[in-house]
Amino acid sequence: LEESPDSAYHSHGSSLEEEAAERTDDEEQERLLSYWQSVGRGHQVDVPRDMAEPIQQLTRNNNPQERQTIPFTLIQRKEKLGDLLYEKRQYGKAKWACIKMKEKQYEQSICLGFMKLMRYICEQNSSGLYLGITIPIVTIVHTDESQSAMMQSVTVAYYLPEVLQDEPPHPFDSDIIIEEWPSTIVYSRSFRGITNEDSIMREISVLAAILESPELCLQDTFIIAGYTNPAAANRHNEIWFLQRP
């Protein structure tokens, strides 16, 4: 009996078209991995081979319309001559996947922290599912009280999508902790480019000078909110001051 194309397909595994698709899939995975590895080298970070799949999955799912923005209530916009100086926002109580990093340089910490969170987002969790990207990815940084030096220890955090807030999937990586953050008022100012110790300290002093009452905010804890992945050159970032509880 002559096999129908369908039965041949089932008995011989994948079709030629599928094999070709898999080949281009592998080539694309290699291309993305080598791109991230070259970016990593610029930040003195090794991007291991086991990141190939999470990188590809994240890239595929990285359509702007599929990213979920962290919800907030806008309280006030402060402008001067048509330029936005800062926004005052309220973020509600929510659960975040957090990882503490303490590399020599800030850029190394956020790249390595982001890679660990990517694995968690890309199926390395108790649900076995791709969790979806939320923006911004945030980093908590600390300075001394006089805001003249930045501490090495930072926390990189991923806001869990609305549908997962009640029951967040457990990370396989024991370094990732699920934390519930209280409702917080933040003062947010936008800036572009790379984020490193110098640019962060500069943005902290700029926002401190603009705010009417900077003393109402924490003096040694700030958040860098990143809307673009750490591999991008001209990133869209924000500096957040946190109002004292």
UniProtKB/TrEMBL annotation:
Pfam families: SOUL
Database matches in PANTHER family: HEME-BINDING PROTEIN-RELATED, SOUL PROTEIN
Highest classification ranks of the organism: Eukaryota, Metazoa, Chordata, Craniata, Vertebrata
Annotated region (Disordered), positions in chain: 1-29
Family the UniProt entry places it in: Belongs to the HEBP family.
Organism: Tachuris rubrigastra
Compositional bias (Acidic residues): 16-29
InterPro entries linked to this entry: Reg_factor_effector_dom_sf (IPR011256), SOUL_heme-bd (IPR006917)
Protein name stated in the entry: HEBP2 protein
Source species, domain of life: Eukaryota
A GO term, aspect molecular function: heme binding
